[in-house]
Amino acid sequence: MSDVRHVLVLPDRDAAEEVAEEVTDRFGVAEEPQLVRDALAGEDDAEDAQWLVVVEDPAGRLDPVALNAFAEEYEGWLEKP
Questions:
Q1: Which pLDDT value is given to residue 38?
Q2: CA distance 40 to 37
Q3: Amino acid 18: pLDDT
Q4: What is the DSSP letter of 40?
Q5: Using one digit for the tens of pLDDT, what is the confidence trace for 59-77?
Q6: In sequence order, which residues have a C-beta less than 8 Å from that of residue 32 and are 6 or more positions away?
Q7: Can you give the pTM of this predicted structure?
C-alpha cells in the first residue's frame, strides 16, 4: 500500500494544535503531525484562516471515519483525498 496522508481541517490554530497533540495519543501516530495555516481564498483578514493538520500514515492503517469523527469534536473535518 502506498503512503497515505490525511488532512484534518480545523477552524483555528488552537484547535489545530490540540488535534495535533491528541491525534498522536489517540491514534498512535508515529510521526509528528504537521500544522499548516490555510488562508481562505480572497480573504484579507488574518483571522479568516483554517488550519490543517497533516497526518502521515505510511502503513495506511488509520481509519478515515474515526479521523473525521475526531476532527468533528473540534468543529473540523477530514479532507477527502
A1: 86
A2: 10
A3: 96
A4: P
A5: 899 999 999 999 999 999 9
A6: 20, 24
A7: 0.86
- Please give the C-alpha separations between residue 18 and each of 11, 44, 45, 50, 70, in angstroms, as whole numbers: 12, 26, 23, 14, 11
Overall residue count recorded for the chain in this entry: 81
Q: Would you say residue 19 has pLDDT above 90?
A: yes
Report residue 8 as a C-alpha cell: 484534518
Q: What's CA 57's distance to the chain center, in Å?
A: 12
Query: Could you tell me which residues are beta bridge partners of residue 21?
Result: none
Helices marked H in 2-63 — which ranges? 13-27
Alpha helices in the chain (DSSP H): 13-27, 64-72
